[in-house]
Amino acid sequence: MRSVIDILDLTVDEIDELISTAEDMIENPSAYTEKCKGKKLATLFFEPSTRTRLSFEAAMLEMGGSVIGFSQASSTSTTKGETIADTSKVISCYADIIAMRHPKEGAPFVASLNASIPVINAGDGGHCHPTQTLADLLTIHREQGRLNNLVIGFCGDLKYGRTVHSLISALSRYENVTIILISPEELKLPGYIKYGVIEKCGMKYVETDDLDEVIGDLDILYMTRVQGERFVDKDEYLRLRDKYILTAEKMKSAKESMSVLHPLPRVNEISVKVDSDPRACYFKQVYNGKFMRRALILKLLSEAAQDPKKKESDLYNSENLINVIKCPNSACITTTEQEIDHIFRPIDKAKGIYRCAYCEAKEKYFNN
Ligand code: NCD
Questions:
Q1: CA of 228 to the centre of ligand 1 (A)
Q2: How far apart are CA 107 and CA 90, in angstroms?
Q3: pLDDT by position in tens, the chain (length 368)
Q4: Which residue among 52, 101, 229, 286 has the greatest number of ligand 1 atoms within 8 angstroms of its CB, and so is best to mutate?
Q5: How far apart are CA 100 and CA 73, in angstroms?
Q6: pTM here?
Q7: N or C: which end of the chain has fewer CB within 10 A?
Q8: Cβ distance 156 to 244 under 8 Å?
């Protein structure tokens, strides 16, 4: 039995298998209508959502299962001070699988450490969003016929855009993928993805702030919303939010075969006029997302039925720093969860570089 907190919790072979299952579900819908009969999904959404929550719920209902849950933290015991750890233990008594979205980075990981049922991360703060990545990968696969030999441009808020972080991590395992990072200086990719993923695996990448300059080179253009809710400085958000707007005019410079993706919701970063362009794939992405979530729920429930024992966590590995330093990231779950151990994994001990096990924020530590 295991959880999916990060896209790298799934191997490339497992992602291939999920894509095949999802494609089969699309082709043969009647073959799956009873697959989750008697099983319950709990959707624990502490942050707003339309697509992710409803697609998880539709996915479970379409497989004959049922759904319990909530869509806002204000209606739960969190308002009374209950921890994620306790909530997860409680929900494990009511459901067979959890999908959790939370504004604090690492919250679904804490849930997975405490629940006795599988937990799926449905988005944690500005950190990651693995099931959106599954939707993205199925869309790229269906539109371009491959997940390798691609030039992919990510445009907009690469700092707080959790869907970008997870998709880049996933793509780092495919052959010959070039990443073009298009953002203003203030919204550049965080170090744990730029250095910890892209540079570590030797992926080719380019950074620019000019969409027009690179749009003609792209197989995929992944547009994103500037994540207003995560800015500490609201004036900065107002200054940056309209930096990139994809228009029908700009699309004239793109390849005929390019696909435009966006995890949605869109604010104004893609003109509505682009929607009728056959290269606009963002509503197909929504459709595909439900099938990948169906495939994932089915896989995790089948694994849990075969082996209900929890996969051992490596959190208390002797290499890790345990309660030595505190996480510097104010959006990390360790800043609010009661009596949680502050755990840092070593990245480069000689240089004293460690990363928080929950949110991946970097901190320096020298033991002398
Ligand atoms: C994204 C998210 O929540 O991170 N939406 C989604 O899940 N499809 C993107 C966003 O909110 O901008």
A1: 12
A2: 15
A3: 999 999 999 999 999 999 999 999 999 999 999 999 999 999 999 999 999 999 999 999 999 999 999 999 888 888 888 999 999 999 999 999 999 999 999 999 999 999 999 999 999 999 999 999 999 999 999 999 999 999 999 999 999 999 999 999 999 999 999 999 999 999 999 999 999 999 999 999 999 999 999 999 999 999 999 999 999 999 999 999 999 999 999 999 999 999 999 999 999 999 999 999 999 999 999 999 999 999 999 999 999 999 999 888 899 999 999 999 999 999 999 999 999 999 999 999 999 999 999 999 999 999 86
A4: 52
A5: 11
A6: 0.97
A7: C
A8: yes
Query: CA geometry: angle at 130 spanning 124 and 135, to 5°?
Result: 130
Contact 134, 296 (CB under 8 A): yes
The amino acid at residue 187 is: L
* Identity of the residue numbered 82: E
Encode 82-94: b = buried (16+ Cβ within 10 Å), e = exposed.
Answer: ebbbebbeebbee
Q: Is the peptide bond before 265 cis (omega within 30 degrees of 0)?
A: yes
Establish whether 129 is a catalytic residue. Answer: yes
